[in-house]
Amino acid sequence: MTELAKLNFKTVDRNRTKDPALARRDKLVAGLREQKLVLVAQLKGEDHRVEKQRWMNNELGERVLVKTLRRVRPWFFEQDGGWYVQCRYGARILAVDGENNAVFVNSLEQVKTVLEVFEAAAQKGDLDEAISKAVQRPLKSKPAPANAAKKARETLRLASPPR
Question: Cα(70)–Cα(157) distance, rounded to whole angstroms?
Answer without folding.
Answer: 59
